[in-house]
């Protein structure tokens, strides 16, 4: 009689846990990072036979082997790989878009065109002071546009450094959190609901890391993750309950460099993919754009001033410098305040001579200031569009990887409904076994 009671009781306990697991699955349908749970049950075998003969027989109840996760390590790794590739491309797009706005918002190419157009208009009547004032104003506008464009690129560079610092801080925070999860897994009985929950947290942390840099993760028997950053040959970032510290700096050429320090040893972190790689690419493109803009600005001011120096102003004096440069080549201002100082005439020409303005137009062609500015903008725009196309493809790949993982590890309400009905029936059957044992025992008592 006691065996019948224990069989029924074991069933009630086991199927109650199974029902709780199904309920948890249903409650977390669509929850990001949640992996479907399964309750593994096994039949309890009893030992029978005499002193010299012992055999096992079935039918002694049911026991809970553990709470499992419908995890798929290969598909999870595929999601992380797709995420890190997409993270690099999307971050690169963000900073290339920032470069584009920095180069175009102040309409530098248009301002240069306006300056040379004003000089050409002045050549028709070199003695016209209003036309000279228009040219001087156009020069001021072009100088201001150079300065604003340079400042926009500098601001973007400073903000990129801040973003990189924040990304590294996020990576360090994720590493610390993962080390704590590893410690929790070491203290939690395997196959328990708590262990499954910690494993979900571990996988979510790895997914978040993969958006920042490429992550290589291996797992021990307890589910603890050992993480290398930057690929299989990259530095170890997390092992057990220990974590390293990532950092970034710029080298002498202005390129971003990342590193990981763990156990007193600093190793280079190769930013091959992820947002960190996108930021490193953005830093390089910003540096190239700044260098190109500096070259255009330096050539523009030096060549325009050189043309000024070889001519005569409206008062017959040698032409003075039109532009002055500050700390950087794009820090340009107009040094001239009197429009009569524009050197329109050649060295031997009179007041109505405009030969020096013709020389200015020649410099416009040879210097290619407008063409170089337009080319800088167009080159970045073409690369940006190419990155957007790549991002669309990578986004589709990632969506496919996420769908494949969801099909293997996600919650299917139809399947859960079947399990819910099955475990409910098993629970009710176990309850009836207990009731039958109780009624039988009560009948025996009444016979006595």
Q: What does this entry look like structurally?
A:
This protein is an alpha+beta fold and 448 residues long. The chain has three domains: 2-68 and 412-447, no CATH class; 75-99 and 162-283, no CATH class; 102-152 and 285-380. It has nine helices and 13 strands. It has helices spanning 2-27, 73-104, 108-124, 129-187, 193-212, 274-309, 355-367, 369-409, 413-447; strands at 37-43, 46-48, 55-57, 62-69, 215-219, 225-229, 236-239, 242-243, 245-250, 256-262, 265-269, 323-325, 332-334. Strands 5-6-7-8 form a four-stranded antiparallel β-sheet. A hairpin with a 2-residue loop joins strand 10 (256-262) and strand 11. Helix 2 runs parallel beside helix 5 (193-212) and helix 4 (129-187) packs antiparallel against helix 6 (274-309). The mean pLDDT is 90.
Which terms would index this structure?
four-stranded antiparallel β-sheet, 62% helix, alpha+beta, three-stranded antiparallel β-sheet, single chain, 448 residues
Number of strands: 13
Q: Which consecutive residue ranges, at least 5 long each, have pLDDT under 50?
A: none
Side-by-side strand order of the widest sheet: 5-6-7-8
Order of helices and strands: HEEEEHHHHEEEEEEEHEEHHH
Percent strand: 5-15%
Number of domains: 3
Outline, from the CA principal axes?
rod-shaped
> Number of helical runs?
9
User: What is the share of helical residues?
Assistant: 55-70%
- From the alpha-carbon coordinates, what is the Rg to the nearest angstrom? 37 Å
Rounded average pLDDT: 90
- Report the span from N to C terminus: 16 Å
């Amino acid at each position: 009689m006691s065996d019948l009671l224990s069989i029924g009781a074991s069933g009630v306990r086991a199927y109650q846990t199974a029902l709780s697991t199904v309920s948890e699955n249903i409650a977390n349908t669509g929850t990001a990072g949640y992996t479907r749970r399964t309750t593994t049950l096994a039949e309890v075998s009893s030992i029978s036979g005499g002193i010299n003969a012992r055999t096992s027989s079935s039918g002694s109840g049911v026991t809970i082997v553990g709470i499992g996760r419908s995890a798929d390590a290969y598909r999870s790794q595929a999601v992380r790989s797709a995420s890190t590739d997409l993270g690099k491309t999307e971050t690169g797009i963000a900073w290339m878009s920032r470069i584009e706005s920095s180069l175009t918002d102040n309409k530098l190419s248009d301002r240069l065109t306006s300056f040379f157009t004003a000089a050409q208009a002045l050549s028709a009547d070199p003695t016209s002071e209003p036309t000279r004032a228009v040219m001087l104003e156009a020069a001021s506008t072009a100088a201001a546009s150079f300065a604003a464009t340079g400042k926009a690129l500098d601001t973007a560079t400073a903000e990129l450094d801040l973003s990189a610092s924040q990304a590294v801080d996020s990576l360090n925070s994720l590493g610390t959190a993962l080390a704590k999860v590893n410690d929790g897994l070491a203290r939690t009985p395997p196959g328990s609901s708590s262990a499954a929950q910690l494993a979900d947290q571990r996988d979510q942390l790895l997914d978040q890391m993969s958006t920042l840099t490429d992550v290589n993760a291996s797992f021990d028997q307890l589910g603890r993750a050992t993480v290398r950053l930057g690929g299989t040959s990259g530095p170890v970032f997390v092992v057990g309950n220990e974590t390293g510290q990532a950092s970034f700096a710029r080298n002498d050429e202005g390129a971003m460099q990342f590193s990981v320090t763990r156990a007193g040893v600093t190793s280079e972190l190769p930013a091959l993919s992820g947002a960190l790689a996108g930021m490193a690419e953005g830093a390089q493109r910003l540096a190239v754009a700044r260098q190109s803009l500096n070259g255009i600005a330096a050539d523009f001011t030096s060549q325009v001033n050189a043309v000024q120096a070889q001519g005569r102003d409206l008062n017959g004096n040698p032409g003075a410098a039109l532009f002055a440069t500050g700390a950087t080549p794009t820090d340009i201002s107009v040094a001239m305040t009197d429009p009569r100082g524009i050197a329109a005439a050649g060295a031997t020409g009179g007041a109505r001579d405009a030969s020096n303005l013709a020389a200015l137009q020649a410099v416009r062609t040879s210097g290619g200031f407008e063409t170089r500015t337009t080319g800088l903008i167009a080159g970045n725009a073409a690369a940006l569009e190419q990155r957007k196309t790549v991002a669309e493809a990578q986004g589709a790949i990632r969506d496919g990887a996420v769908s494949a993982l969801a099909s293997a590890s996600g919650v299917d309400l139809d399947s859960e409904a079947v399990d819910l009905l099955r475990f409910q029936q098993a629970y009710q059957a176990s309850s009836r076994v207990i009731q039958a044992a109780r009624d039988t025992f009560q009948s025996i008592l009444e016979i006595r």
